Amino acid sequence: MAEARAAAASVPPRVTVRVGEEAFDLAAESAALCAGRDDVGGLASFVGICRADDALESLTLEHYPGMTERAIGRIAGEAMARWPLLGCTVVHRVGRLRPGEPIVLVLTAAPHRAAALESCAFLIDWLKTRAPFWKRETGRDGTERWVEARAADDDAAARWDLRGQDLHGQDLRGQDRPGGAGR
Amino acid sequence: MSAMRIVYFAWVRQRVGTAEEEVSPPPEVRDVGGLVRWLSALDERHAAAFANPRLVRAAVNQDFAGPDHPVRPGDEVAFFPPVTGG
């Protein structure tokens, strides 16, 4: 028993980041995150789904290949540093998605629930405001519209007190930027 | 050799009319803000893309960058709207 515990405890934390068009499987990703270890006491998940807002036919997501993966990897590292996590998984889809289809998956595994739940919320809040993705809505009448960034998302991200200019998409006004780290 | 690679995303790309281009700004263009001013003066499309600079974000070599961030030949500079993922 003691030997088995020691072996499991030595499994290093797992961080998985994936961006692509393929759908994801919540059960399979959860199993992969916890495979081969018995030190996980809490596994938190968030699945973002394409919601059928007024006459929406589809969403089309684009990203910045390279930068997007790196930006998510960096914030995943931040989550791992802030909470005692045993691993986290972020899968974000791009391309055309219809109402009902999953867009994004965040999984966090920790010995206890608080770290798993808090870090999961942190990751999705950050993703919404700091990872380079852009959504375009196509209406059933064929009209196209870029989704605008929401102040509420900025507020949600700000509660985690993110530090570091390199995490932050500053605007290009030089002189009239507000002081401090917030936007 | 002195060229910079500029990449555009979302509606910034649509307004400029291209996803990427190579440009060779003069040596006075030293930072992101200067590059925005220089690009805006190129033609109406670029001017339209940067008409409201508050709505445009930038990255230099794939890291978010503010207006004071330096730019150099060989850099990859990206311009895009505020992000809307998740």
From TrEMBL, chain A:
Q: Does the record carry Protease as a key word?
A: no
InterPro entries, per this entry?
MoaE_sf (IPR036563), Mopterin_biosynth_MoaE (IPR003448)
EC numbers on record: 2.8.1.12
Q: Enumerate the residue ranges of region (Disordered).
A: 162-183
This protein's pathway: Cofactor biosynthesis; molybdopterin biosynthesis
Here the segments flagged for biased composition (Basic and acidic residues) are 162-176
- Catalyzed reactions: 2 [molybdopterin-synthase sulfur-carrier protein]-C-terminal-Gly-aminoethanethioate + cyclic pyranopterin phosphate + H2O = molybdopterin + 2 [molybdopterin-synthase sulfur-carrier protein]-C-terminal Gly-Gly + 2 H(+)
| Single GO BP term | Mo-molybdopterin cofactor biosynthetic process
Any Pfam family the entry gives = MoaE
Endoplasmic reticulum as a keyword of this entry, yes or no, is no
Uppermost EC category: transferase
Q: Which UniProt keywords apply?
A: Molybdenum cofactor biosynthesis
Q: Which GO terms describe its molecular function?
A: molybdopterin synthase activity
What function does this protein fulfil?
Answer: Converts molybdopterin precursor Z into molybdopterin. This requires the incorporation of two sulfur atoms into precursor Z to generate a dithiolene group. The sulfur is provided by MoaD.
Family according to the record: Belongs to the MoaE family.
- Assembly, per entry: Heterotetramer of 2 MoaD subunits and 2 MoaE subunits. Also stable as homodimer. The enzyme changes between these two forms during catalysis.
Recorded protein name is Molybdopterin synthase catalytic subunit
Organism (species)? Roseomonas acroporae
